[in-house]
Design goal:
This protein is α+β, with helices and mostly antiparallel strands and 235 residues long. It contains eight helices and eight strands, in the order αββββαβααβαββααα. Helix content is 43%, strand content 15%. It has an eight-stranded mixed β-sheet with strand order 4-3-2-1-5-8-7-6, with helices on both faces. A hairpin with a 5-residue loop joins strand 1 and strand 2. Helix 3 crosses helix 6 and helix 6 packs across helix 8.
Length: 235
């Protein structure tokens, strides 16, 4: 298996795993850089997220033009491409339609680190991109990238989120932590004010959460879970 083949396999697996985690539905996408190039891999627009195969993965260049593949890329590709162009450190981008993150944004509630999954994302509330329209233009993609800044995730009001990472495994684990933190925040908000972690707690808990061994553990768990659901068959 070549490096490209391996990356395509990871994109297909991650897409199916995001579906099992209920972080994407009939829409949503995840992409990855091809190391040493200005090209990226992302799954095709019309393919069900629960059955993506490596053959469904499309190669696009830094301008969002398709280089290789049988499908057109997702319509919100500018969110990925413009984020990659703005952030050399980012190796993988995901766009989710995650329910509890959207619920928080609908209520105008901030998402701050008040639990261990949330500690992954650091100090202060996650930034919010306030235009709920789909991201179809470079200008919109640039605006999302500016909202994201140097953070690992941003909320798209009424729409979903964008999550980035140093590998596709890292991005996947961050997607899981983001939704879990949002769900806990929504539940805790019914009981009273949220109690955020202080700086010391954030540093200690966040450092542990960002260990590659923890990231890999999350990835491996969802590989096993997706296998049990029968959704890694054929890969």
């Amino acid at each position: 298996m070549t490096q490209i083949d391996e990356l395509k396999m990871k994109v297909a697996m991650a897409c199916r795993m995001l579906y099992v985690a209920e972080l994407v539905d009939y829409s949503g996408h995840i992409s990855i850089r091809i190391p040493g190039t200005d090209k990226f891999l992302i799954h095709g627009h019309p393919v069900s997220r629960c059955e993506v195969t490596p053959d469904d993965v499309v190669t696009v260049d830094r301008d969002g033009k398709k280089v290789e593949g049988k499908w057109n890329p997702p319509s919100e590709l500018p969110m990925h491409i413009r984020t990659y162009r703005a952030r050399d450190d980012v190796q993988s981008v995901a766009h989710l339609h995650n329910r509890m993150v959207v619920v928080l944004s609908m209520a105008g509630r901030s998402l701050v680190a008040a639990d261990n999954p949330g500690a992954l994302f650091g100090t202060g509330p996650l930034p919010v991109y306030n235009d709920p329209a789909l991201i179809h233009t470079d200008e919109q993609g640039d605006a999302v990238a500016r909202t994201l800044g140097k953070r690992d995730a941003a909320i798209l009001r009424g729409h979903g989120s964008v999550v980035v990472g140093q590998s596709i495994e890292w991005t996947f684990a961050a997607c899981v932590d983001l939704e879990e933190s949002a769900a806990r925040t929504c539940l805790a908000s019914t009981l009273g004010p949220i109690r955020p972690y202080n700086e010391d707690e954030l540093e200690r808990v966040g450092k542990g959460r960002r260990k590659m061994s923890v990231i890999q553990k999350v990835w491996d768990h969802y590989v096993a879970k997706t296998k049990l659901a029968g959704l890694l068959n054929g890969l």
